[in-house]
Amino acid sequence: MAATLVPLAAPASPDAGRFGQTPWVNTRHFLPIAAAFWTVFGLVTGIQVWISMLDHGHSVPWLLVYYLFVWLAWLGPTYVIAWLVRQFPPGARRRGMVAAHIAAAIAIAVVHVLYEVGLMLWMRPYDRRTATFSEVDFLEILFTRVPLEWILYCLTLGCVLAFEYYERYHERALRAAQLERSVVDAKLHALELQLQPHFLFNTLNAVAGLVRSQRNEQAVTMIAGLADLLRYSLDQAGRQRVPLAEEIEMLKRYLEIEMARFSDRVTYRVSVIGAAGKGMVPNLILQPLVENAVRHGIANVAAGGSIELEAEHVDERLQIRLRNTGTLAVDPVEGIGLRNTRERLRNLYGEAATFTLSAGEGTVLATLDLPWETAA
């Protein structure tokens, strides 16, 4: 033969897909990547041989086509190696695993060398310098080339195994993330279900109080508002985040209920600055804060009081400030509403969100600072 082919580098790994699943290989990714590698490998090998024979005057295109055919033939063995990895997955103690790979390496090496020699005799890429059939010593060629083919087999096997381990690790990480997300969703849903009976119980008690005092018109208004709130709660079931504008509309219905309950003792003002209404907030996050403000603040003040809500978008953050008339207890014991608020924020945002309560001169300020998000 006019030239001896030497692998220039380890073969790039074909994307063998997730061998532990059915189908055993993702051919949409596997075949194009493997074909691309062997194409590049063939071109590089052909260019190297051409450079080493510049003074021979060979046809460069014909030489490159020959080496492309030689190394693209390794696409089949690469596929076979991936199949063997599927049959004998890493870590599996099966009899015959090593024997199967040894047999495959020998068979692939012999077949590929014979194919290469046959292709050379047919295409004659080295022009008149190409060896004829009578000049070819098949035993010598096998003796010198088969070890190189075995090395190539081992390198390909190593790459396939590396990608197999990567795919398995990636799959486990994905499943772990999905499981963690499911657990968080379940906890948030449980917190939401815990909040709804609490709110319903308090509102029904208020309705009962209005009925006993024969304030029937206010009781009817409160029942209508309660129906709207329950409908909103059912419509939003399963949604952990909603636009602030929707949450504020629900909050206004709740404040109307409280105004019917306390008559002229409660006033409120809502200010949404700029695009803050488009920011996403946890579903039903404001109602327990306002309920807490009315129950522990305004209800304890004979002259009543006011509630002011302000929201604005500042530096990729959504800041919501709720100020109400009243005082903050020296050693406050948080009720279910505030505890759920903190727990929901922690599960949804981790350390990225903050919730604080502070006291001023005759007022209490609740502040929510959330990452800025908008609806997809």
Describe it.
It is built from 9 helices and 7 strands; from the N terminus they run H-H-H-H-H-H-E-H-E-E-H-E-E-H-E-E. It is α+β, with helices and mostly antiparallel strands and 376 residues long. The protein folds into 2 domains: 27-177, no CATH class; 215-371, Heat Shock Protein 90 (2-Layer Sandwich). The strands form 2 sheets. Strands 2-4-5-7-6 form a 5-stranded mixed sheet. Strand 4 and strand 5 form a beta hairpin. Helix 1 (27-52) packs across helix 2 and helix 5 runs antiparallel to helix 9. The model is unreliable at 1-27 and 188-195 (pLDDT under 50).
CATH-level-4 superfamily name of the largest domain = Histidine kinase-like ATPase, C-terminal domain
- Provide the low-confidence segments as ranges: 1-27, 188-195
Mean pLDDT over all positions: 75
The assigned structural class equals alpha+beta
Order of helices and strands: HHHHHHEHEEHEEHEE
- Major sheet: arrangement of strands: 2-4-5-7-6
InterPro entries: Bact_2-comp_sensor_kinase, HATPase_C_sf, Sig_transdc_His_kin_internal
Organism: Tahibacter amnicola
GO molecular function, one term: kinase activity
Keywords: Kinase, Membrane, Transferase, Transmembrane, Transmembrane helix
